[in-house]
């Protein structure tokens, strides 16, 4: 049996978009925490609301807490992304090779939308 394909699209009405975001935001943070606990992995979440409010969540053995009050736009978020990518590359190089089935942590953050 095939699965029904779900097509998502942008919510055009700004008020509806804000309402939907506020209802789902806490659930995303909760699911991020669950994923980190169950898979014993580091999680970093950075979200910008439709109104520009920043929400962050971090579950890491060595926690990274960005100074979100300094992130005011996408360009500044990209700068933090660059910093995080550099740090992740250094950590990756320091790890012992785990073979072909190793998860490449950099792939998830560098994927384009």
From TrEMBL:
Q: Which residues form a coiled coil?
A: none
Location comes to: Nucleus
Q: Which GO terms describe its molecular function?
A: DNA-binding transcription factor activity, RNA polymerase II-specific; protein dimerization activity; RNA polymerase II cis-regulatory region sequence-specific DNA binding
Q: Which UniProt keywords apply?
A: DNA-binding, Nucleus, Transcription, Transcription regulation
- The keyword Transcription regulation is annotated on this UniProt entry: yes
Q: Provide the GO biological process annotations.
A: regulation of transcription by RNA polymerase II
Which Pfam families does this chain map to? SRF-TF (PF00319)
Matching CDD domains? MADS
Main location, first listed in the record: nucleus
This entry carries the following GO cellular component terms, namely: nucleus
Against InterPro entries, the record matches this protein to:
MADS-box/MEF2_TF, TF_MADSbox, TF_MADSbox_sf
Asked if the keyword Transcription belongs to this entry, the reply reads yes
Domain MADS-box per the UniProt entry, residue ranges: 1-61
Q: What PROSITE patterns does the record tag this protein with?
A: MADS_BOX_2
Q: Which residues cross the membrane?
A: none
* The protein's name in its UniProt record: MADS-box domain-containing protein
Q: Which organism is it from?
A: Solanum lycopersicum (Tomato)
**Taxonomic lineage from the root:** Eukaryota, Viridiplantae, Streptophyta, Embryophyta, Tracheophyta
């Amino acid at each position: 049996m095939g699965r029904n394909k779900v097509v998502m699209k942008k919510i055009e009405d700004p008020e509806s978009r804000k309402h939907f975001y506020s209802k789902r935001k806490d659930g995303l943070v909760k699911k991020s925490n669950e994923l980190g606990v169950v898979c014993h992995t580091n999680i970093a979440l950075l979200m910008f609301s439709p109104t520009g409010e920043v929400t962050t969540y971090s579950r890491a053995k060595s926690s990274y807490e960005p100074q979100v009050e300094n992130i005011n736009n996408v360009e500044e978020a990209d700068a933090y992304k660059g910093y995080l990518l550099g740090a992740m590359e250094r950590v990756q190089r320091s790890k012992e090779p785990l073979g072909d089935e190793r998860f490449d942590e950099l792939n998830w953050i560098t994927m384009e939308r």
